[in-house]
Amino acid sequence: MKAGLKTVMLALAVMAAPALAGDVAPKVPIDRSKGECVLPGPEMRRQHMELLKHRRDATMYDGVRGGKVAFAACLNCHAVKGDDGKPVTVKSPQHFCRVCHDYTAVKVDCWSCHVSVPRDGAGKQALRPPHRGATDFAALKKYLKEGRK
Amino acid sequence: MKRIHYSLLEGRAGYYAALLVLGAIIGTGLLAFWYMEHYGHIVTGMTNQIVWGMPHVFAVFLIVAASGVLNVASIGSVFDRKAYKPLSRLSAVMAAAVLAGGLMILVLDLGRPDRLIVAMTYYNFKSIFAWNMILYNGFFAVVLLYLFVQMSRSFAVQKYKKHAGMAAFLWRLILTTGTGSIFGWLVARQGYDLAVFAPMFIAMSFSFGLAIFLLLMMALYRAVGRPLGHGLVNRLGRLLGVFVAVAAYFVAVAHLTNLYAPEHQAYEKFILAGGNIYTWLLWGGFGLIGTALPLFLLFSNAARRSFAPVAWASLLVILGGLALMYVIIIGGQAFPLVMFPGKEVSSGFVDGVINSYTPSLPEIALGLAGAALAVAITVFAARVLPILPRSLADDDVDPHLARAADVVELKKAA
Amino acid sequence: MTDTSLSGKARRDFIKAALATGGVLTLAPGLMLLTTGAGGEAAAADGKPAVDPKKRWGMLIDTTKCTDDCDKCVSACKEENGWQAEDGSLTDVQWIRKVNVKDPATGFAMSLPVMCQHCANPPCVDVCPTGASMQRVDGIVRVDMHICIGCRYCMMACPYKARSFVHEDIPEERKKPHAPMGKGCVTSCDMCAHRVDVGQIPACVEACDKGAMMFGDLNDPNAGISKRLAEIPTYEIRADLGLDLGVRYTRLP
Known about the structure:
The complex is a heterotrimer of chains A (149), B (414) and C (253).
Chain A: H1 2-20, H2 41-62, H3 71-78, H4 96-104, H5 137-146
Chain B: E1 6-7, H1 13-39, H2 54-69, H3 71-77, H4 88-108, H5 116-121, H6 128-151, H7 155-158, H8 161-184, H9 197-224, H10 230-260, H11 262-273, H12 277-298, H13 302-305, H14 308-334, E2 344-347, H15 361-384, E3 388-389, H16 394-397, H17 399-413
Antiparallel strand pairs in B: 1-3
Chain C: H1 8-12, H2 14-19, H3 22-34, E1 57-61, H4 72-81, E2 96-102, E3 109-115, H5 123-127, E4 133-135, E5 141-143, H6 153-157, E6 164-165, E7 186-187, H7 193-196, H8 203-207, E8 213-217, H9 224-231, E9 247-249
Parallel strand pairs in C: 1-9
Antiparallel strand pairs in C: 1-8, 2-3, 4-5, 6-7
């Protein structure tokens, strides 16, 4: 039921974009069933680049991972499914970044390095189980304390 | 003292033909850049072992030479040599042009040339590379200021000529120290990590720069048929001879220093006696073609009467300089990094192997484009700015030169 | 909360759950004991800073246990960080490699993994013109690829050949969300910072089934790695350079 609703919403969002392109800016597709965006739309439109840049430095220098304002979280909520049912990559003009960026002719410098589709685990790190093997925190703690003998 | 009259570069068909040819070379280089940028450096000869390739050979050569080109002006205004004064304007313009050519190569060979703005806005002040960027930009500023002071008609400005010249001279010394230190401060590599690299690069800049200046000046004067004195060319040629010898001296000192330390002997054996391309380029390219032959030509009697020996010598110095740059930059990386001194190493990541490098066509095209840009800027500047003296005949430049030339003529007659 | 297969609903609701801190709280007790972030928070993917200036992450590699036919650490790194390298390739990206060393005078031979040594005085950081080559305050040396211009000076400066230049586009399928790398930038081992930040150990250390690799906080005298370092002699590659390496070996040729 929920999945169906989601598809309809996504389809609406995607369809709405070209229809409105004539007079207002295109609408960014979002799956609201996953929660609200970190900022209301108009603010996001103006500030998303600041948020991304701030987050980028926070991750690089301070090791900030996960949380709500995460790059992977953007990819998760804004993913647009293609004909094959899989999220489209940035190669497709339907990709949520390109919906606006094509319209405003602003080139971004993200995708030569970053993945443009949600990946299992990424963006869900708060809920993500620890990597292979090391599921037992007591054991990991013991490891860090004593090392592997 | 005669007044020096400057005038714009004349010629119509020749001027446009020259710009067309240079433009074609630059265009080819830009195409090569686009090709490398589009497909990535995978299409070049560079690897994860030889990370700086042919473009850096050209770029570093031109950047080093640029400060040397300025020396002609410095000798005139800082050291008060009369015969050099008429050449100051051309020297300053050409120095900026050669630097621009070198920098163009460097920038277009970056992995992310589109991030030039990042290079300009993020500075790591501990990096000698970052300091070099400041020094390059400063060089343009100082040289253009120097040019303005020289060309100003106001005495209030003109009287600072010597100060401006001194500033430019000091700046260029610091700049080349910086360029040499890019290599000299690399502690990890056997071929670098030498304090003598800074003065060696300065000596190289004196030599390469004057060679470029001489060649281009003679070409310009010959092309438009303006008078050029044998005395002047001969004097500049002899100075070039001294610089060539000094550069060779520093190169010898660098290798001798390495030879004395057993830890560097394997590297020296590789370069000096390895029988590889670097051995040939060092002995044959720099030693014979870039040093011995030019010295012979420059101090020959023929150089007093004819331009040809000086022109040939200048060309050979440039070729020898490029060969030396190739040995320093590529040869220094081709020798395997020594992680375990005295041990044999092997891995799936070509450890312990002499690294091979084959320059690719796009890399060479980009390098040549930088050189062409330097010439094109100089030619264009000579067309729009009065930087070329109407006559460089010995009589007009410095009567002493004329008399020296007369003596030669008299001797010849006798 | 140790299940490895979250239900579809749980996946969809991850933000809500994360917001409610339910997931974090469940994980926190275990993690809290492991590592404490700068502000004293638990090291987890909770959107809080995880880098602690009091720490210095490091590794101890027991080369007596390392065999020349094993490259599990290398394969694990490839899988974790999404790089591929053909054997002997000149242009492929590599973060860690197995090096075989032999003393020609004595015939003694051994094998060891070499990756970024996470120097305390890293030459790559010193030479980088933009500051892209950086050192986190917890000692991890890495490339901030957002400001890397691809000049390769760090590769000239590194004594360990630890860095690679990305020569061509990396296909979307191979990219890892936590280890982005792209054409025109330089990349290298970051001691699996994305794992360390959430309280896990680097992939290579985890993959080593010979117990030859040890990871921990060199500044913590009670950490297993520090105790071991105090017990036995350990060495740095090219110690003569005075770089104070974060990776130490129990035996070197």
